[in-house]
């Protein structure tokens, strides 16, 4: 069999790369591609979709549109005989009168309001009383010789951990230097605690930290809180206010900062039971009912009899922030741009007679803005086996030029002209996949950056749908245009998209996906 990748490179270059002025036919083809990208972005961010908030009518319209476009492109249904993988969510609205952290010690009882509460599967109310153990940063990383749970009995206990990871400001830290690892996410810390038998997790911001607390831009919003009804986590997480930390450590012989400094200095855990105290956690969700969301999936079956059982995934999320305070959040770049690129790539693959060796699953995730609920659901209910899923390419926010925001200013270096730049996030953990993208880029000519893998201030590693796959040891990278002042504001509109840049990143992604799907060797996850 001739190599699929070599053939498709030629096809794609003819379709998407503008030629010399005299080659008007080919230039028109490139222009048509940009027009299709533009049409998809404009539809997905149209006022009628009301910002595509998870569980909203607009989000459902977007999901049905994507399913219809997958079918028109010739993709097979990716979820049995359907293009939709449904999952159910519970809106969250904790009752402040019945939601608290109560710390009982020798000095009596103190009550604190948690910063947030993560409800576990199918739980609308929480009432847990137990002793407390301190598990450092809540990390078990055998490949780094580090385990906060070594020698600690967490069974049935409430576990207190710090956010982030040790030695975060140390470039020589085994935890990816001044960058981040997947161990730093709150989801991981809850999952690891429940794996060790904990009843609940208390998550506290480290008392000694270099986190930047920049003010959000006016109009920047967060998504309404929701939780998976099934397929999420099984124990609750309460965010601990800093004022409660000293109560929790009162009988330990050191302050919270003192215990953190021991871990930071030695690079070793300092886990222990916290004597003389018990904690009662209570929370009631006053939001009734549940709602349905979808992951939208289309499949391009592979051509090779052996390799077609393996999968390469191209994913992008379709939900956004909806209407808040009377303002529509269109989400043209976040993530109309990634969806438009995915649809165009699906059309290009599906219309060709020659197919890649491996199967390609095109996957549009719902409810990403709710801390990746769609992709977390998927890794618990994969449509194709995860052990034979060889690579994941995630597209999110690829249509605008990166600019400083209040959070990034003073932390990241950003070029004055980013129109030819694109970021790879998680490349440090998937170097073979990153190498493949860089090889494909020889035909595209963009500048590929890895700055978000070397910086923890923006927490980019933890912010998108590539992350859940890393927890299952599936190589996954996020192709990312970068943050900009319109991020999560009503100003994320179609007219702000750089469609030429979007076209180039679409081309780069296609070439990378084609190479991954036609590669005989497997990728590894570091």
In short:
This protein has 526 residues and is an alpha/beta fold. It has helices at residues 4-16, 24-44, 57-73, 186-195, 242-248, 256-266, 332-350, 373-380, 431-440, 467-471, 499-517, and strands spanning 76-77, 84-91, 100-105, 108-112, 117-118, 125-134, 140-141, 146-147, 158-162, 200-204, 226-228, 237-240, 272-284, 291-300, 311-317, 323-324, 327-328, 359-365, 389-396, 421-425, 447-449, 476-480.
Description of the structure:
- The protein has 526 residues and is an alpha/beta fold.
- The chain has two domains: 50-89 and 290-517, 3-Layer(aba) Sandwich (Aminopeptidase), CATH 3.40.630.10; 96-284, Glucose Oxidase, domain 1, CATH 3.50.30.
- It is 27% helix and 22% strand.
- It is built from eleven helices and 22 strands.
- It has helices at 4-16, 24-44, 57-73, 186-195, 242-248, 256-266, 332-350, 373-380, 431-440, 467-471, 499-517; strands at 76-77, 84-91, 100-105, 108-112, 117-118, 125-134, 140-141, 146-147, 158-162, 200-204, 226-228, 237-240, 272-284, 291-300, 311-317, 323-324, 327-328, 359-365, 389-396, 421-425, 447-449, 476-480.
- The strands form four sheets. Strands 1, 2, 11, 14, 15, 18, 19, 20, 21 and 22 form a ten-stranded mixed beta sheet that branches.
- Strand 16 (323-324) and strand 17 form a beta hairpin.
- It is globular and about 75 Å long.
């Amino acid at each position: 069999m001739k190599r699929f990748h070599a053939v498709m490179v030629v096809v794609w270059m003819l379709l998407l790369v503008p030629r010399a002025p005299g080659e008007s036919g080919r230039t028109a083809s490139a222009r048509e591609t940009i027009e299709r990208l533009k049409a998809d972005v404009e539809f997905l961010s149209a006022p009628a979709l009301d910002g595509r908030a998870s569980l909203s009518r607009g989000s459902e319209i977007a999901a049905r549109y994507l399913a219809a476009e997958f079918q028109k492109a010739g993709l097979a249904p990716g979820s049995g005989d359907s293009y939709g993988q449904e999952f159910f969510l519970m809106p969250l609205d904790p009752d402040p009168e019945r939601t608290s952290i109560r710390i009982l010690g020798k000095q009596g009882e103190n009550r604190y309001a948690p910063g947030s509460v993560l409800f576990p599967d199918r739980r609308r109310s929480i009432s847990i009383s137990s002793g407390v153990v301190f598990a450092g940063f809540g990390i078990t990383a055998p490949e780094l010789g580090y385990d906060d749970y070594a020698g600690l009995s967490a069974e049935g206990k409430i576990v207190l951990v710090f956010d982030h990871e040790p030695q975060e400001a140390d470039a020589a830290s085994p935890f990816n230097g001044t960058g981040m690892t997947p161990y730093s996410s709150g989801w991981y810390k809850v999952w690891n605690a429940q794996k060790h038998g904990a009843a609940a997790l208390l998550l506290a911001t480290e008392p000694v930290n270099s986190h930047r607390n920049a003010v959000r831009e006016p109009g920047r919003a967060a998504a309404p809180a929701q939780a998976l009804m099934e397929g999420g986590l099984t124990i609750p997480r309460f965010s601990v206010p800093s004022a409660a930390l000293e109560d929790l450590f009162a009988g330990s012989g050191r302050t919270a900062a003192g215990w953190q400094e021991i871990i930071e200095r030695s690079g070793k855990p300092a886990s222990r039971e916290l004597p003389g105290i018990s904690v009662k956690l209570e929370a009631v969700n006053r939001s009734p009912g549940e709602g349905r969301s979808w992951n939208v999936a289309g499949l391009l079956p592979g051509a090779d009899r052996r390799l077609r059982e393996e999968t390469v995934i191209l994913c992008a999320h379709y939900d956004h922030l909806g209407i808040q305070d009377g303002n529509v959040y269109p989400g043209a770049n976040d993530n109309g741009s990634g969806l438009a690129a995915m649809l165009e790539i699906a059309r290009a693959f599906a219309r060709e007679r020659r197919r890649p060796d491996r199967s390609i699953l095109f996957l549009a995730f719902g409810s990403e803005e709710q801390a990746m609920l769609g992709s977390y659901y998927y890794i618990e209910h994969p449509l194709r086996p995860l052990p034979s899923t060889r690579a994941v390419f995630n597209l999110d926010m690829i249509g605008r030029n990166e600019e400083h925001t209040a959070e990034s200013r003073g932390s990241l270096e950003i070029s004055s002209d980013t129109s030819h730049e694109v970021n790879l996030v998680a490349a440090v953990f998937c170097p073979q996949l990153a190498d493949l993208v860089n090889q494909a880029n020889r035909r595209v000519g963009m500048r590929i950056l890895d700055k978000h893998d070397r910086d923890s201030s923006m927490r980019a590693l933890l912010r998108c749908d590539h992350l859940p796959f890393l927890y299952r040891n599936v190589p996954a990278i996020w192709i990312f245009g970068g943050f900009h002042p319109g991020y999560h504001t009503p100003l994320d509109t179609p007219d702000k998209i750089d469609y030429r840049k979007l076209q180039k990143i679409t081309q780069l992604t296609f070439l990378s996906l084609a190479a991954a799907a036609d590669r005989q060797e497997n990728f590894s996850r570091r």
